[in-house]
Amino acid sequence: MSTATVVLIALAAGTYVLKASGPLLLGGDRTLPAWLDRLAVLLPAPLLAALVVTSTAAADEKLVVDARIVGLVAAAIALRFRAPFVVVVVIAAAATAVARALGA
């Protein structure tokens, strides 16, 4: 068996063990502590926001201001007006495309 195959099998097994450990350890009548439950509910939003900003404004460890920022701002405005998600994505893509076409 090649080294790559062994590494792939080990990573797959490790991932399975990590994913299975939560339900196995917390299964049955056990529940998370209240503070951890609140944290688990609040954590996805700032993590997603950080991922979006990092993906939009960073390249090679530098801050980049280009047409993607225009799309991000357009998406934020559409979200502010409670537009449906598909509409937000279309508006962001259109704003980015227009900004690139205009050379921003």
Describe the structure using short key phrases.
single chain, 104 residues, mainly alpha, two-stranded antiparallel sheet, 2 strands, 4% strand, flat
Walk me through the topology.
Layout: H1 3-26, H2 34-42, H3 44-57, E1 58-59, E2 62-63, H4 67-80, H5 85-102
Antiparallel strand pairs: 1-2
Helix pairs in contact: 4-5
Descriptive notes:
The chain has 104 residues and is mainly α. It has a domain at 1-30. Helix content is 76%, strand content 4%. It contains five helices and two strands; from the N terminus they run H-H-H-E-E-H-H. The protein has helices at residues 3-26, 34-42, 44-57, 67-80, 85-102; strands at 58-59, 62-63. The protein has a two-stranded antiparallel sheet with strand order 1-2. Helix 4 runs antiparallel to helix 5 (85-102). The longest helix is centred in the first third of the chain and has 24 residues, at 3-26.
Task: Sum this structure up briefly.
This protein is mostly helical and 104 residues long. 76% of the residues lie in helices and 4% in strands.
Shape: flat
Q: By helix and strand content, what is the structural category?
A: mainly alpha
Largest sheet: 2 strands, antiparallel
Share in helix: over 70%
Note poorly predicted spans.
Answer: none
Give me the number of helical elements.
5
Strand content: under 5%
The count of strands amounts to: 2
On the 0-100 scale, what is the average pLDDT?
Answer: 89
Computed CA radius of gyration, to the nearest angstrom: 21 Å
Terminal-residue CA separation: 53 Å
Secondary-structure element string: HHHEEHH
Spatially, the strands of the biggest sheet line up as 1-2
